[in-house]
Write a structure and sequence with these properties.
Elements: E1 2-8, H1 28-43, E2 50-54, H2 57-66, E3 74-78, H3 86-94, E4 102-107, H4 111-120, E5 134-139, E6 152-157, H5 159-162
Parallel strand pairs: 1-4, 2-3, 2-4
Antiparallel strand pairs: 1-5, 5-6
Helix pairs in contact: 1-2, 3-4
């Protein structure tokens, strides 16, 4: 059984209008939210071997807040994940090495939300995908076979649910 964790970066700050979108940091609420998600990951059985993370500052800071919650997973910061569409994210997941059982993808809306809905066909359950939200999905097969409707939504949690 393969596992995918789709984590939208935590709440970012808009305090400095001079910063580019790519360089926006987490807001205090985002720091708390990412910490809450880290606690949730530590208590569950959502282990991964690989983390694919957008190069955007808010995504990297979300990853940093997760700390040891992702165990000793290999981390790959990827420029292509910033602003990626659901099709681009799906293509990236299809290129995960076959021996990897679990992947966490830390990215952005609307691509992340659209991917979660397409993979699970759980539109109503995933109607909103707020910052810091985490969807855990499972599927049988290979990464290269991953496609729409092939996964099962195991859980969907928002930082607000945990605080």
């Amino acid at each position: 059984m393969k596992r995918i964790l789709l984590l939208r970066h935590a709440k970012s700050s808009w305090d400095d209008p001079a910063l580019s979108d790519h360089d926006r940091p987490l807001a205090p609420r985002g720091l708390r939210g990412a910490t809450a998600i880290a606690g949730y990951l530590r208590t569950g059985d959502l282990k991964v071997e690989l983390v694919l993370c957008s190069s955007a500052r808010r995504a990297r800071e979300t990853l940093e807040r997760l700390g040891d919650a992702l165990g000793d997973a290999e981390i790959s910061l990827e420029e292509e994940l910033y602003g990626a569409s659901d099709d681009e994210l799906l293509d990236r997941l299809r290129r995960v090495p076959p021996e990897v059982e679990g992947v966490a993808l830390i990215g952005h809306n609307p691509g992340l939300h659209d991917l979660a809905v397409a993979l699970t066909r759980a539109g109503r359950k995933l109607e909103r995908y707020p910052t810091g939200a985490l969807a855990a999905l499972e599927f049988e097969g290979t990464w290269s076979d991953l496609d729409s409707g092939r996964t099962r939504l195991v859980s969907f949690v928002k930082p607000k649910d945990l605080e």
